[in-house]
Design goal:
This protein is mostly helical and 142 residues long. The chain is built from 4 helices and no strands.
Length: 142
């Protein structure tokens, strides 16, 4: 009986873990974007309209996360795609205008230079239950 229970819960645990990873992926991305907006080298390059567009998208995403802690994986992934669709074209446009590309080389795709050792200053709202099993999907190699 214990074995069959363990099997049953293993699937639930796996699903929960994937859900948490999807949620954290979205949350991390939103905060990365938010931090990029405050980057001095970047701030000046953004047109006001683009900056507003990104800020609105980030704030809506974070607000949605706040209210949908228990959403399904595909909902988190859809929200992340939506945010990426707003952010990437603008960031690409800026990168094209900057000699030598974005500070830190390549800017956002692939994350921030050096990743996020020790997480974000002041921790992340709601913390990260269970840490980050398996690292960041599509994140840093190794």
């Amino acid at each position: 009986k214990m074995v069959s229970d363990a099997e049953k819960y293993k699937d639930e645990d796996e699903k929960a873990r994937k859900n948490i990873e999807a949620k954290n992926g979205l949350e991390n991305f939103a905060y990365q974007v938010k931090n990029q907006l405050n980057n001095d080298q970047l701030k000046d390059k953004l047109e006001a309209g683009d900056k507003e567009k990104i800020e609105t998208a980030v704030n809506e995403t974070l607000q949605w996360l706040e209210n949908n802690q228990t959403a399904e994986i595909d909902e988190f992934e859809d929200r992340k795609k939506e945010l990426e669709n707003v952010v990437h074209p603008i960031m690409t446009k800026i990168a094209a205008d900057m000699p030598g590309g974005m500070p830190g080389g390549g800017g956002m795709p692939g994350g921030m230079p050096g990743g996020m050792p020790g997480g974000m200053p002041g921790g992340m709202p709601g913390g990260m239950p269970g840490g980050m099993p398996g690292g960041m999907p599509g994140g840093m190699p190794g």
